[in-house]
């Protein structure tokens, strides 16, 4: 029996998660309750035979949709997660030169920086993908961050084959990206195959659904009649609009998202 | 379900039009997202520059400002059922590390050459790096044909220059396609301007390429990532590089040739399969409690990787300072971290002719062949045998300074890496069964220096790690084997001789014999050393006599001072310190825990590595 595309993607992600676990400590995983980081949690359970051997962190702005919080509580209990809810600093503490929605998103950057500092994390696992956004396409699987969380995108270290480099200076940390090689469609196909639970907001009701789930103040649903995962996959195969079109912060200025990410955003 | 994706890296000189080719390719195959072209036209207008297809890829502000690609990036596209990931790698010399990063994840390469400028140094350098990385499927796109009037002889001239160079590094291009990326000629549709060209378009060549596959049928290889504990189960995890693994299979862990059978394959959520194949990330348990380390290589006994401390590698040197003979570096290979030293710099490659030449050092961005000696014994495959386990990075301080591949490994002079499966029992077979080699750990030192205390704790720690170990001390020998002996000089020498013989038998039987004896005479210890041969490790438990006398747990020093014990070592008898002990434990300055740990790690290192003459840690 040969491995299909999903088997191949899964095997690679599991191997990355295990490398992270055996080489980087202390370690935590970010969970936004979105489809990607929930699939990532599922992969972590696969990698470690049912349990997740590191804390799972929600960077909480208090602005998630109510269905998202319900989902968090149900899954955290059912999957027996070591959940850490990190409250992000208020918007008044964020760089005022950023455009409004970007500033709202940057609260998570600030929350993450505080979290890493307080717990001394050397590794933060995040469920970003290269196909989501152009600066994410340039990411490494093991991506170093300076002590202030910033990303030096122009001077990234080489990353050769799957021989990962994990040595970093004191105070710095690694962002670890096990889903970098997946696409949006891959995630949905995998979610369906593995029967992974999702926040119901992804499925269309009254002609609208969320394609990408963000905070309620900076995310808008798209027009869609896709009420099942099958229909979502069919929609994605034919659509030519970008996944993060509903994320206001990505589009405020040409380099809005690049500024967010070099500052330490996921 | 779509077919596994194909990853294609675009390489070539910085100005030869790689990003333009990708932008045009996406557009002509209907893979550009809605609004993208408009967004980029708007950006071009705002900046007052002509519209460039390459803006599709140059995502960073600094990239668009400078109109160059700084870092590798990826673009997904679909050609029918096939998903293709295009990896755009920067051509600029300064960003070679990023080019290699992008290329190291690719199945195939698209090498772009400017029809007017022809082959440049960067073209050659990139071709050479494709070979180093292991990419064999290469398509050449001769771009900007519009600049040379779409003329066939211009195309043929570049082709005649390029093909012999590629042949020199063992690459035969799948196709050499004349294109004009800006206009879309020969990208998705046959060019009307070049009717003389009847070969495939870029899209057709992409559709015909295949992803690199792992070898399902070949011999088993898996690098151990670690051991996951679940209750009392110890689950060995890793990704199978080649071959397959099933319940009941006999597997060997190298180096050190430890053998066990696969008891179960583990997976969540169940049920577990009976057999797993190349490419899968697996977990399994073994029927024996072997000592298993991250970095071990799992294989079958019939086809094990060679164990060695000497090997040749081809490197791309990325360090800021040149690489020189005797440099010490750390090396990651498979899941292993090893310490290596440059034994010899054999040759470099001339970037103009791609011919090898002698070299005494390697400068940044040079490709060189280097012989390394490793401190640890390594189970190595070569790039031709198992590419996935023959790729390495070198680290200096915290920085990656090279990437490379293993070209050859020179077998250790010690033949013990060959497991004599089915042969008569010998030392290696016992080691394979125990998961470790035998050894004689000879602990010498003054009375009350700490020998017995350390020996007992060492025995327990080794036992906990599944190592067969046994402490020989005065009490368990003097009451039996040596009960005919007294305390004359002659009897004391005979006592030590017998201890040496017994310890040798234990060691030969595959056990770690820990002999804790004052053994003050150098000559007596030499007798034991000769008996045990290469199993012998002399450990000097060192403490000044005044410290030992202050400890005096049994009151022997006091008795000796009172003249009650004649010839008491340290007071009335001489102690001859070892001249070249394998390990010194200074118990005046080390805590008991630290002394035990130091010794424990020393012993593990000796017995897990292949048996070889006792030697110190230093790399010579």
List the helices and strands and how they pair.
The complex is a heterodimer of chains A (266) and B (620).
Chain A: H1 5-23, E1 27-30, H2 35-47, E2 56-60, H3 66-78, E3 83-87, H4 100-119, E4 123-125, E5 142-145, E6 173-176, H5 184-194, E7 208-209, E8 222-223, H6 229-238, H7 256-262
Parallel strand pairs in A: 1-2, 1-4, 2-3, 4-6
Antiparallel strand pairs in A: 5-6, 7-8
Helix pairs in contact in A: 1-2, 5-6
Chain B: E1 6-12, H1 18-28, H2 36-47, H3 61-66, E2 73-79, E3 82-88, H4 96-103, E4 108-114, H5 121-133, E5 137-143, H6 152-168, E6 175-178, H7 202-208, E7 221-230, E8 233-242, E9 244-246, E10 250-254, E11 258-266, E12 275-277, E13 281-286, E14 297-299, E15 306-317, E16 323-324, E17 328-333, E18 336-349, E19 356-358, E20 361-362, E21 367-380, E22 391-396, E23 399-410, H8 427-434, E24 439-444, H9 451-464, E25 469-472, H10 474-478, H11 489-508, E26 512-516, H12 522-532, E27 536-542, H13 545-551, H14 556-561, E28 583-586, H15 592-608
Parallel strand pairs in B: 1-3, 1-4, 4-5, 5-6, 24-26, 24-27, 25-26, 27-28
Antiparallel strand pairs in B: 2-3, 7-8, 7-14, 8-13, 9-12, 10-11, 10-14, 11-13, 15-21, 15-23, 16-20, 17-18, 17-22, 18-19, 18-21, 22-23
Helix pairs in contact in B: 9-15, 11-12
Offer a few descriptive terms:
heterodimer, A: about 270 residues, alpha/beta, Rossmann fold, two-stranded antiparallel sheet, B: about 625 residues, Elongation Factor Tu (Ef-tu), domain 3, 4 domains, six-stranded mixed sheet, six-stranded antiparallel beta barrel, 15 helices, elongated, disordered C terminus
